[in-house]
Every structure is written in C-alpha cells, then in structure tokens.
Amino acid sequence: xxxxxxETRLLFLRKHTLLVLILxxxxxxxxxxxxxxxxxxxxxxxxxxxxxxxxxQKSLNSPKHSFDVLKYTLNLNLYNxxxxxxxxxxxxxxTIRFRxxxxxxxxxxxxxxxxxxxxxxxxxxxxxxxxxxxLTVTLDxxxxxxxxxxxxxxxxxxxxxxxxxxxxxxxFTDCEPEGARDWFPCWDKPSDKALLDFTAKVPDNVLxxxxxxxxxxxxxxxxxxxxxxxxxxxxxxLTVITSKVGYNLDILYWPMLSSPTTLVPIRYYYNAGEDxxxxxxxxxxxxxxxxxxxxxxxFEKNGFATLDAQFIWGGMENQTLISFCPDCWDEYLxxxxxxxxxxxxxxTCGTWSDIWLNExxxxxxxxxWSEHAYSYYQYKSDIDYYANYYLxxxxxxxxxxxxxAITTPPQNELFNYAVTYCKGACxxxxxxxxxxxxxxxxxxxxxxxDTTNFKYKSAVIPDFVSKIxxxxxxxxxxxxxxxxxxxxxxxxxxxxxxxxIGGGNWTVNFLANQVQTNTGFFKMPIELLxxxxxxxxxxxxxxxSQNNExxxxxxxxxxxxxxxxxxxQIVLKQASTxxxxxxxxxxxxxxxxxxxxxxxFTGKTTIxxxxxxxxxxxxxxxxxxxxxxxxxxxxxxxxxKHEVEIDAKNLAxxxxxxxxxxxxxxxxxxxxxxx
Length: 675
Ligand SMILES: [Zn+2]
Description:
CATH superfamily of the largest domain: tricorn interacting facor f3 domain
Mean pLDDT: 90
CATH topology of the largest domain: Immunoglobulin-like
Largest sheet: 7 strands, mixed
Shape: elongated
Number of strands: 35
Bound molecules: zinc ion
Strand order of the largest sheet: 4-7-2-1-10-13-12
Number of domains: 4
CATH class of the largest domain: Mainly Beta
Radius of gyration: 33 Å
C-alpha cells in the first residue's frame, strides 16, 4: 500500500509538468494516465469485494418492514477487546426507538445468531424468538400507525470472526452491505436511516471514534466511556466503531462557508509511523470544493482512520468517519470516500439496486477533483481510463438490476468495478456532455440540496431522474434508461460521403449506424468534425434518436473528411466511421436522379435513382415539347438505390427528358436517343 503513495507523488509532479507542456503546445492529445492503484474507486472496490470472504451470504428474505426506526442507542462494553488474546466478545444493549407504520404487536429485526446471543428484551418488548439472522420481538400490546415505541435488547457478541474485528489493540467494525447485523440487532436495510447514540466502555489507553460528534468522554480510574452522538440519520451499513490503543490523532477545522466562525472538526486517526499529510493537506480545499459543487458539507464533523492488516483494501465511507487501509493516506482515495459523504451517506441508495447513486457518483467525483486540482485534461484522462477499463472488463450486465432491491447480490456483482464504478462514472460524464455543464452542475446541486426529498434521506434512481427532469426542464428518462438499465454499449459502424452538388456547394451525408445485437439502441447527441480543404474545420452536433439515421450538411467550401465524436465524449462505445461513396446505405435526404447510362444511346439505357424513404414513385419520359410520351414505372419503391431500364425502341431519335416523381419531390434529366 505504500506503493500507492509513491506513485501518487510522482504523478503529482508529472501532472504539473504536463500542464506546462499543454499550455506551451496546446496539445489535447497527451496527458498523464494515473496508475490503477491510484484510483480511489479502485481501492473502494478492492475493499468491498475482498472483505470477509469467509462469510456466507446473508438472509435472502429481509424482514417485512412495518415500522420506521428513529434511533439506535447503543451501550457496549468493549473493555476486554484490546488485550491479549483480543477476543471478539463483548456485551451490550441496544435501545431501538421506532414509529409504527402499520398496526403491529411484533417487530422483526436482523441479528445474526452465529454472532449475537440475545439475553433479554425490555421496555415495550416482552419476549423474543431468534432464528437465523431474524430476531422477532413480541411487544407488550398492539401499537397503531403513528405510535412511537422503544424496545431495549440486551445481548452479547460471541468470540467469532464477522464484521466486528479485533487484534493487537485495535477494535473496529466494517459493515457494507449487511454487516451491521453481526454486531447489533437492527433493521439492516439502507432505506431506514436512524439517529445513533453510542457509548462504549474501553481501557483509558484507547482512542475510540464513531459516527457523529464526540459528546463526552468520561474518565473513571483506568476506564474511559466514549459517548458519540450522530445529529443526522445514519444507514446501518454506515455505522462504525474505530478504536485502538495508541492511535495518533490530528484534528483539522473547516470553517463553514455559510458561517465561517463555525468550525467543523475533521479528525485524522492514524497508526504510528504513518504520515497523513497527503490527505490532510487537501481536505480543507476539498471540503470547500464539494460544498460549492453539491451543497455545504452536511455533517457536524468528519474524519478518517487507518485500520490494520485485517482491512488491507482501500477505504469505506462510514458516515463522518471514513476507514482507510493501513498507511493509505492517498489523495484519490480521500477524494472518493469523501465524495461518498454527500453521495452514499447524506443521500443513501434506497436499495442495493440503486448502488449507482453511491459508487457511480463517488467515482465520477474523483475525476471532478482532478479537474479542480489539475486540469480538464486530467479529468478527461480519468474518464477515459474508466471507459477503457469498462470496455475491456465488461461482464455484460446492466448497472441497475431490479432484483438487487429484494435480494442482495454477491459483493463481486454489487461492487463490480467495471460496471458499478467505471461505467457508472462514465454515465455521469456523458450526462454532462448531453445536457451541458450548466444544467449538469445545477442538477448535482439541486439533487444534493433537496432537503424535502433527498438530503439526509435515501434515494432510488427513478426519484433521482424525476429530480433531474425538473432541473433540466426536459424529459431525460430515455438517457438514464438506456445507460443504466440496458447492458453493454453502442457499437457504431458509421459511413459518410461527400458530394459536389454544383454551384460551389458540397453536401456531406452521414449515416449513424449502430450494429450491436447484445442490447438496444442508444439515443445520443453526436458531434461530427468536418475538415475542409484549405485547413479550416467545423463541428456540428445533432441528436441521433434512431438507428440508421442520415444527416446531411451543405457547405460552400470543399469538405475533405469527417471525424465522428472527435473529442470522444461518448466514452462508452466502439466505433468505426468510413468513407462510403458507393455504399448502398448512404443516401441523401432528398431523392437523387442519376444521368442515364449509356447516353446518348440506341435501344436500351439505364437510369439510377435513390430514395431517402419508401415512397410512391412515377418515372415518365417527355419529348422535347414537354409532352409525356411514355410511363416507365408507376408504383411503390423501397428506400435505397434502384436502377430502372428504359427500352426506347418505340421512340424516334431525338432529345427527351425523363422524370422521377415521388409524393413530395420531382427531378428531371435530359437524354438523347440516336438512330
Ligand atoms: Zn466507493
């Protein structure tokens, strides 16, 4: 993991060198490519797929929810966890305050019975049944909708390996997606966020941190009682305990933008021998940047803590206390996990099928950090990296799988790096390209700042899309449907031609053609760069809303070639674009009537024609006095190129005209019949 640091520092120098080169040569084509290990998203992903491989998948049938948890009050005695043999066992109570949604006399909770043993229930709880990971608590009476009740559960945690880790004087938890139920009974789904009040008894050489603010720490003899309170609701998977004998602690203070005299503490817990400077040196600027781009930093404190070798992969975005692997004080890991404080923590994915709202956003925001700290070219290099990773590792499923809302998938699916992270980030990049910077950043701001629907709550993707439609003043469902719900990506086999149409004018015809068979059509705005003889160029942007769509552009100078998507904005694609003068697919937007061949002629000649769409067609021959003398064809013809033979054996030698007439156009040419 130290390698990450070295690479990142070298990269830092390289970026600045490159920036100078770019300024000197205005080169758009070369910029630094970060190493994979320096992507915070990669480390976030590594952590999520590598954790707890020994654990079985949890219950597929989450409890039916007929109540809303308002607050968890936890009191844990962790005193023995910090001394050899570092047991995982502890005892405690959790008091669960909940509001009843539909009348009930029992509540169902999650508590893994191989980890947690229930000792008793009290207050409104009178008895319990604990089977598998479901704890059923029977209440003292029926509670009606709207009533608020409390159940206290006394329990002890067994000396087993699960989401509660101990060893060598450290004790910590790591929960996403379903680990909270290993160490306290709770309703363990991301949609039910609750306040948290956490007290822990530990030896007085232990520093212990959790979500929210440190309310007090009471020192009695050789014992400290740490009391942490979260002002804002927390999803169970984002709850955390981080504690260690001999932690180092730095506290930085971020002045709120709206109230500069209010200082928000950002706490850095780090192991002996580590240097958190790479993260500490950017965190205040990053907090400003994210606050300006999304909404003001939403929590009463924030923080980071490095753990031990039981947590060697990357980071975890626990609310207001991010976990890092040992000595992982990396700029981009900081950028990624800190972005989750807004997208993931402040607004939490409503179900696991909405994971894009967490990981797509945090991964994209890493690139936004690149743009802020370095340059747009570094941003685009990051996006291109994500796109290339996706294109070479695409497992073929869509970002959104509706089943994941019900059945939590295996972690290597839920946290698939190519799809959930890389493709997810690219979908946001292409959304920015589609609606433009102004609407894109307004969308992020309005979504993050929506206190009625999203802020401090959970979000599902359809609600997010409704919000975006409202902000952008247009229906963008098509965009999110195709990129989030369809698997794979477009494969373009485009063609174009250039025609001299006389009078000093040229026409460029472009056929936008997608050939993929493993997914549907992708509507997208497309950019075309047209180069002219003499060195000038122009870019046109058109909306390609159906397959095999043809676009025609007329110029009063000579085009020499066309480049599709010149800035590679549609990053999730494969594409080829060829000059196709003689290709049957290339058609003008209007009918074309070619000169007959041979001409002049004796006996038979052939005329060529092209139709941009199927139509009723009439082909006539007129004499030199404009009188009709023969009807060659009268009927329906398909879109495309056609050839029609004219047999002139009944016509006298002379000058004639032939016409092509459709429902909307008519064209005519001259021909000469010889003896
Ligand atoms: Zn992440």
